[in-house]
Design goal:
This protein is 39% helix and 17% strand. It has 319 residues and is of the alpha/beta class. One of its GO terms (biological process) is nucleotide-sugar metabolic process.
């Protein structure tokens, strides 16, 4: 199958690309190579993919790319994703995550291409107890999550209005190799390796559901290939960890002490707990995560220690 992965030089996108290439698919990558995208992430598949440095916000360039190649499926990973950045500069999030998605939906509609929107558990908002299902009402609380929820509404409108062959996946917190050092785990690793302290929001009690990027990518691919028009699937691990738990495990792996923790003021609108039910994808597509968090975090630390230059990458990064 000829598959286009937008945002394919990023963290999750590049893992999807590696798995697709390993499965003998023809892969086209579109990425604008902003600060979080890096051709280094595609080193393993160099010479095995087609790559176009194009911004999904550029409607004309996107059209030209898709007019020049045959594509059966689009997996849209292209997005601005950092919540703190969305608070300080929300405009680019609305531009890329909403209007960029619209541009791709138009391509998919006019060329009859299957379309998978990669979304986030953050569209549901916070939940003190229990888990959100795919039928739960969306209640985003940050400009980032609002932009992703808005993109989902666009996708649903194209399904209803144009009968577009489109689907949605909502993923929990991803971690693993190749993640740009703006998210909690690589930021904390960078601080600890350089001898600094880790800036932990509030009291560290916020809870996230962590999933290794290889498991997440496998789920995304399963939905893309096997899912039907209008399907929505949650992809999660059911492994819940507070931020302080994650921090202490990192400290233990690196043989550091809790004196390295610096508690800082919480960010505005910081959701306390994300939790999504992934029983649907496990039941229908027989997907399940294979990498436990302790094992996955240790291998992630090993990867960053073997690739220290990745932790020095710069961008509009916040914790």
């Amino acid at each position: 199958m000829n598959i286009c992965v937008t945002g394919g030089a990023g963290f999750i996108g590049s893992e999807i690309v590696r798995q697709l290439v390993a499965s003998q698919h023809e892969v086209l990558v579109i990425d604008s190579l902003t600060y979080a995208g890096d051709l280094f992430n595609l080193t393993e598949v160099k010479g095995k993919i087609q790559f176009f440095q194009v911004d999904i916000n550029d409607k004309q360039e996107i059209k030209e790319v898709f007019n020049s190649v045959k594509v059966d499926l689009i997996i849209n990973c292209a997005a601005e994703t950092h919540v703190d950045n969305s608070i300080s500069d929300p405009g680019i999030f609305f531009q890329t995550n909403i209007l960029g998605t619209y541009n791709l939906l138009e391509i998919a509609r006019t060329q009859s291409i299957k379309f998978l929107q990669v979304s986030t558990d953050e569209v549901y908002g916070s939940k003190v107890e229990g888990e959100f299902s795919e039928d739960s009402i969306l209640n985003p609380s940050s400009p980032y999550s609002a932009s992703k929820a808005s993109a989902e509404m666009l996708v649903n409108s194209y399904i209803s209005t144009y009968n577009s062959n489109a689907l949605i996946v909502r993923c929990s917190n991803n971690y693993g190799p190749h993640q740009f050092p703006e998210k909690l785990i690589p930021v904390f690793l960078s601080k600890l390796i350089s001898g600094g302290k880790v800036p932990l929001y509030g009291n560290g009690a916020n809870i996230r559901e962590w999933i290794h990027v290889s498991d997440s990518a496998k789920g995304i691919i399963d939905v893309a290939l096997q899912g039907k028009r209008g399907d929505i699937f949650n992809i999660s691990s059911s492994d819940f960890r507070s931020n302080i738990e994650v921090t202490k495990l990192l400290l233990s792996i690196l043989d550091k002490t809790e004196e390295q923790i610096e508690y800082v003021a919480d960010r505005p609108g910081h959701d306390f707990r994300y939790a999504i039910d992934s029983s649907k994808i496990r039941r229908i597509l027989s997907w399940q995560p294979l990498i436990g968090f302790d094992e996955g975090l240790r291998s992630t630390v090993e990867w960053y220690l073997a690739n220290p230059n990745f932790l020095t990458k710069k961008g509009p990064a916040h914790v």
